[in-house]
Amino acid sequence: MRVSLGVLLLAAIFIAVFSMPSFVWAQQNDAASVISSAQTKLVQCFDAARAAGSAGANVSSLMSVLNGAGAQLSNAELAYSSGNFGLASSLASQSQSGLGGFLSDANALKSSAVASSNEQTLIFVCSIVGTFAVIGASAVVWVILKRKYGNGMQRLNLTQYKALFIVVIAVLALLVASPALQRVLVYPQTDFFTGLSLLGPGHMTENYPYNITSGENYTVFLGVNNQLGACAYYQVEVKFRNETQSAPDSFNFTASSLPSLYNLTAFVADKESLDIPVNFAFDYSFQKSADNTLQANFDSLTFNGETLNLQGYTSDWNPQTNVFYGNLVFELWIYNGTIGGFQYNERFVDLKFNMTSTGMGDIFAG
User: Fold this and answer.
1) Please, which of 5, 161, 259, 326 could form a disulfide with 353 given CB 3.0 to 4.6 Å?
2) What does the alpha-carbon distance between residue 27 and residue 92 come to, in Å, rounded to a whole number?
3) DSSP for residue 328
4) What is the average pLDDT across 83-97?
5) Distances from the Cα of 190 to the Cα of 151, 303, 335, 336, angstroms
6) 283/200 Cα distance (integer angstroms)
7) Are 310 and 240 in contact (CB under 8 A)?
8) pTM of structure
């Protein structure tokens, strides 16, 4: 009996050990599938919102829904990369659920905008026709008046009213033509661009965090301004580097080769801006190597409530500037429907840090 129990126990352990990888693989595969489905749904909804915006609809409310779903999807992707497949699947499912009635809402806005556009076109045509009708009718009236009152002394009286007649007809024609003139006199947009900005804690271009203390929270505001003529789907890649690592190149318009720690999604309607609060805190420590080289070793970055792994990231002491250099970079990428992915938008903003803070005294003393 003891032998049998021992065999059963070993068999149970054997089954548990060898079935675990299969279970994890299945969970990972399921999470990847749900995330892929959520990504597809998000792009479909963006395309529908873009079509509604192009038809003239106000899509600000749609952009708000997309931003909420995009934030959940970003967190799902972060959870997946961290190996938390259950949470990744749950967040991706929530992202899809938040877009349940999106397509019907976008199509309704598009239909309403098309109907309004057709009505405006009809008014435009009627305005043009009405203007020519006023001018034509006025000419006919003037000819009739000339025939009836154009003889003898009455011709002088008619000539006296000619200027007044022209002014009245001109004013009337302008009133009738005003709907058409409003459309004609609107100058088309010729400069298309995206603006990326970074503001300090008071929404001003000042007081940016520089002297960083481990464990302390800091806040800045990232702004994305869309002047592209249509809705846009952006992705901001968050990267951290020391002074020797790859940085974005403003001259060659290339992105940093470092991996993104976190992706912020941003859906912005045409001629609108999105203000993104960014809260962050670093967890790091200092050490002195055997050859007396001073180094800051990073453990993690808390970014908008999410903990990002920075293990392996270091910064060496710079004796010329007397700092441990740190650089938090925000690169702007834009979705290209033709290639079905994101392209670097050749724009970035960054924060440069002095990571020399509490704890350095002990290192120098040592």
Assistant:
1) 326
2) 14
3) E
4) 93
5) 57, 37, 21, 21
6) 21
7) yes
8) 0.79
